């Protein structure tokens, strides 16, 4: 991968000024604690960190909770008028946050709702689309308390019905969690290219406006998955285009199909179906395009599989699950449904707000079910190309897996370091120094 797109990452370690040769596990409160920023994690690292923070939650329940939070961030972000880049970054911050902080932490009273609002607030700062915490909280009220707007014509929230004391208490919690969110990114106020890469790559691949929009919607969904923590924005854009091609073709083995002439006599390049077949054939195998695009077929394949996992999770979620109460909003504010003006519709106010909201920005063809999506994922795994990264995220220089060096002692030392980081995180005692490499590309 070209050096311009390959971050040179530092090992995420904790050191003390009083100990330069090792870690003694009992540093004093006055000793500085160093935490280095890591923009990317491998898939194994994400799974290991997630397993520590999920506690007794099952993997399926954790994924459903993540989608509930990302859907809530999506819905509130659109109601605030935030651009898609701000919403995508907020979703990435939420996923990253729970690599460091557990889902249930009674010390900080962390809840899915408060953490979601805090990440949206931090993201608004990073993208210079700032809104006050109070405005973001009020924007979430119609989703959380639909009865407050059912009493008003036009679906407008009545400020007089809001409990000022409760609003101020929630604002204090959001501002408190903001610090923890900033700690998870080591106070690095920088954002990547985001969704703009989809348009740039689409122009280079000579995709039509229709196919570009479909790929862009797929990229919006990708930021609801952990791939944003493993790959840079341009690789996610390529993976989104590949995933969109597979989902749009709606065939069990699209790579085995030959290109057919268009029935209307148009050239293959002008036919959306033939465009998707061409892109699936190119990105599904290793080739010269990998060097041109600074990515590998293995990475693109891994992102496509993660997108399939997202759709499988959403389709397999029971209707009674709370996730359906906080589904994502439309892709843009122009698509937002309006609430009914009839106050008598109070019993269906929540459904009226979200009646036309789909679970994902990309609309799945009717062909896809949990079974067909699973079959497609198995098919992709069977023909997964081998390349740099091999679908395991960005390579991390100098960051061996736990136990790779030092045997059992290496595992014990790593666990001690992790416990010390957990003890210090979010605390005021001692000094914590957050550092990062200035040359890291995101």
TrEMBL record:
<feature type="compositionally biased region" description="Low complexity">
    <location>
        <begin position="328"/>
        <end position="350"/>
    </location>
</feature>
<feature type="compositionally biased region" description="Low complexity">
    <location>
        <begin position="10"/>
        <end position="30"/>
    </location>
</feature>
<dbReference type="GO" id="GO:0016538">
    <property type="term" value="F:cyclin-dependent protein serine/threonine kinase regulator activity"/>
</dbReference>
<dbReference type="InterPro" id="IPR043198">
    <property type="entry name" value="Cyclin/Ssn8"/>
</dbReference>
<dbReference type="InterPro" id="IPR036915">
    <property type="entry name" value="Cyclin-like_sf"/>
</dbReference>
<feature type="region of interest" description="Disordered">
    <location>
        <begin position="314"/>
        <end position="350"/>
    </location>
</feature>
<feature type="region of interest" description="Disordered">
    <location>
        <begin position="1"/>
        <end position="30"/>
    </location>
</feature>
<feature type="region of interest" description="Disordered">
    <location>
        <begin position="384"/>
        <end position="430"/>
    </location>
</feature>
<dbReference type="GO" id="GO:0006357">
    <property type="term" value="P:regulation of transcription by RNA polymerase II"/>
</dbReference>
<protein>
    <submittedName>
        <fullName>Cyclin-like protein</fullName>
    </submittedName>
</protein>
